[in-house]
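Lay summary

Proteins are chains of building blocks that fold into shapes. Our project writes down both the chain and a compact code for its shape. Here are two examples, one after the other.
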Amino acid sequence: MSTDTPERAAAAGSPQALIGAALLAAGRPVRLRELASVLGLGEDAALRAVQAFGAALDAAGLGMALEAVAGGYRLIVPPPLAGHLAPLLAPPPLPTLSSAALEVLAIIAYRQPVTRAEIEAMRGASAGTVLTLQERELVKVVGRSDAVGQPLLYGTTEKFLLEFGLSSLQELPPLQGADFSHLLRS
């Protein structure tokens, strides 16, 4: 016979309550293995619980949705409701990236790790926007090349995945060939 009282069982929480609490408390995407640990379940069972949680949110219409992003899960405002919340959101979004910055970001995303010289060779122009992308935490230095002078190698960050709503780089749309000249140019 169990010694748990109804209050004690409620305090421990249902798997859905624990998932919701974990996602809210973390304030970042939470990986499946972390959720499995919180739930005391194996990853397969935790995945089923997370999927059930997402379905329950959708069915309840509570103004929240579950999103798989950056290798984990997070709670978001469903896109149809986001526009209604604009007055509450701060700070204002950063200015949009220039087409040159977007082109450099695309090259880094698809070819990482890549040096600045390689980016410039692909673009046929300067890659000065790398610094802007670093300031926005969309790209980072991921190492040094073995080439002469050991130039820095650049790659994308977890914030890049978050900003573009990707779970991983494998979700990037496929490219046609290895020619990057068509990327983000008018």
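And here is the second example, written the same way.
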Amino acid sequence: MDQLSRRSLLALGAAGSVLAAAQAQAASFGNPDAPPQGAINSTPGALSEPGPRSPALQDQLPSFQNPPATDVGNSPLLWSSFNIMPKRVQGGGWARQMTAAEFPASRAVSGVNMRLGPGGIRELHWHLAGEWALMTNGRCRITMLDAEGRAYVEDVGAGDLWFIPPGFPHSLQGLGPDGCEFLIVFDDAFQSEFNTLLVTDWLAHTPPQVLGQNFGVPPEAFARIPLQDLWIFQGKEPGPLAADRAAVASGGTVPEPFTFPLTATKPVKETAAGRIQLADSRTFKVSTTIAAAIETIKPGGLRQMHWHPNADEWQYWIKGRGRMTVFDAGPRAETIDFQAGDVAVVPRSQGHYIQNTGSEEVQVLAIFKTAQYQEVDLSDWLTHAPPELVAQHFNIDPALIARFPDTPLGIQPG
């Protein structure tokens, strides 16, 4: 045998040994893929980053820099953050938004993070989409008129919701001493704060003679109207709630409230590791296009493996630090880190779980464009399938399956 042939055979043998070793390692528990994924399979030299980088950004998303060996495939980017969205600032407050234009993974809803200072007014307006909102700080007064001419005026605080159907005119005003901050979710992925029907816009673009005839007053009464929309402006703080209600009472009373105290409700699931509170059309009856849950996960807790069969899940991270893995066909599995102000999308029916990786509670708002919340819990499913069938899938003792949680607990302790 010549030297070239011998060298080739030795090289092939070595390559085969490396491949076999890699395949054996890849088949090991917690590292299932070939070629093997993850930093555990690499070397310091290969993992180094001598090129340009931003440590501040990298440190926000460590699982992107060093994903678990179980991550696989190429998933769309399911992460974004209000922290990187530009603010639109005016005299009475500010807002920043995230539509499908800024976050393409969000195909069902869009979001706006808004602040109104004490007395700050989000001017009288209406939308082409339904407006669902969660108060995160302070207090706010809502005024609204329904299609039957019935007014609704209410003050809301942190943890409260409101829902305004499409086309219903309304306003928002921050109350003292701290004003308010809230998250708005529109049931249209492209609804933008720059695409709102504003009352000042309409009047400024209507001839004075038409305004006078419409309202039964001299056209000169409108000589000082703003010629540019107000959007958010500094106003005077309103008087007592009862006085505003009395002033608009002539139209009658709405049959169902347009606000809801979400964080004051009894949890639908609660363990020592956390709780889940729910609002959908069964409890918050006017909210016919948006269902929502607030998930509170204590340090070390795990939001159990589950999926939602009827809608994408749009998440807003209110506080804490955590990590979520999303599983899809392919296989695809992507792990992402989150902190306050971040947003995520989990497409419909894709499996996922959340881990609290910090030292304080994680609180996540989960939004679904649907009337009613639905969830399938993995442990609940496996304990309601024949034990021998499940045991054959995982090569485990059927007796162990009997120890799986057989009701959807929602959040498991560490």
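What can we say about the second shape? Confidence is low (pLDDT under 50) at residues 1-23.
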